[in-house]
Amino acid sequence: MSLSGCGSGSDAQASASSLQFSFWGSSVRAGLTTKAVQLFEQSNPHTTISTWFSSFGSYWPKLATQISGGSAPDLIQMDMRYIDQYVRKGLLLDLSKYIPQTIDLHDFNQPLLKGSEADGRVYGVPFGGNFTSMFYNTTLFEKVGYQLPTGFNDWTWDEMKQVSQQIVKAAGPGVYGTDDASSNIGAFEVFIRQRGKELYTPDGQRAFNKQDVLEWFSYWSDMRRAGLCIPPDLSVQYSGATPALTTIVAGKAAINISTSNQIQAFQAATPRNWDCIQRRPQRV
């Protein structure tokens, strides 16, 4: 979470009686966040916080529209991929000068804090860790007798292709091994990091090469041709905008690559048995 960089410290204090907080997520997250805000207001009775939230995809256009209209939220949930962009535009407040006297972060996870930095300065306080994970239908995996490793990084893309072949054969028509993750930036980042690379250099340049991209899209092209991943028409139908619109919840695919904070939403959306393995956080 970041503070918008509108005004000086004295300006912020003067307007602290009423703050606006924007965030993205499901209704489950919204409920939990609202409870946290209410607890804060009880402890700080002279401060009120209004909130708005939306899905991740619609959050950024809505936030950009609000900022361009001159009414940026005071508290902004920020994705680490957007921090540099917002900092360059002068939209986020540098919190470094408030640490550690006003903001004490000594007991925070230091690698997570790094995700809130730009040019060595702190622009936010992390809510928590969120990792690219592979959700899978345990019933289908048990049906083919496949035992997954305990960590995402211990599993290869060829092994995912192999188990997809087994699942498609065992489950019959209409069920696929996996979603088509060719456009999933989180999955692509796992693929790149498994090659000892990052998506971007510290100065914001591309850190992967054309061969990496060619091999990534060739993999998914092969999966589509073999009927192992969701075809394009189903990818459009099950956009993933909500848990109900994911192929794993609908029973169309055995594997879905998503983020770990979707666990509760997936659980609430389907009675099917499923589990997930997380990609280990790593910095190279």
Automatic annotation (TrEMBL):
Species assigned in the record: Dictyobacter kobayashii
Pfam families for this protein: SBP_bac_1
Name of this chain's protein: ABC transporter substrate-binding protein
SUPFAM superfamilies in UniProt: Periplasmic binding protein-like II (SSF53850)
